[in-house]
Amino acid sequence: MVNRNILSSYGKESEARGVRETYSALYAINIVFQAIFTLLWQIGLALFVGYALVEWASLSEWVYVPLILLGVISGFVSMIKFILTAMKSLDRIEEERRAKIKQREKKNGK
Fold first, then answer.
1. Are the beta carbons of 64 and 47 closer than 8 angstroms?
2. Which burial class, exposed, middle or buried, applies to 42 when counting CB atoms under 10 A from its CB (0-12, 13-18, 19+)?
3. Phi-psi region of 2 (alpha: psi -120 to 50; beta: other; left: phi over 0)
4. What residues does each domain of the chain span?
5. Is there a contact between 86 and 24 (Cβ–Cβ < 8 Å)?
6. DSSP letters along 62-105, please?
7. How many CB atoms lie within 10 A of CB 104?
8. What are the pLDDT digits (tens) for 16-71?
9. How far apart are CA 49 and CA 110, in angstroms?
């Protein structure tokens, strides 16, 4: 079996930890951008529908107010649902990682 001291002396373990930390940071940035996009998409869609109703259906500009409010509310609901789903996924990934570490330690201990 390979000793951990040998691996750390060559820097393999620290390199692997750095790669994991970089991947985790990029994954977190991805979640933030997707959450923001989810919020803005709903608001943009509400603005487009409002514009279409004002221009093509000749409705008053007051139609923007309820549509923007609806867009903001639905955007926040979608964003919160996305974040909760992403957090469950992160928890599952973390549990799998811990299980692999325990399995590896158990295998190295035998």
1. yes
2. buried
3. beta
4. 32-109
5. no
6. GGHHHHHHHHHHHHHHHHHHHHHHHHHHHHHHHHHHHHHHHHHH
7. 10
8. 677 777 777 888 899 899 999 999 999 999 999 999 999 999 889 999 999 999 99
9. 65
The separation between CA 41 and the C-alpha centre of its own chain, rounded to angstroms, equals 16
- Rounded Cα gap, residues 36 and 40, in angstroms: 6
CA distances from 92 to 25, 63, 86, 96 (A): 17, 44, 10, 6
Rg (CA), the chain: 24
Buried residues in 56-85 as b, exposed as e (16+ CB within 10 A): eeeeeeebbeebeebbeebbeeebeebeee
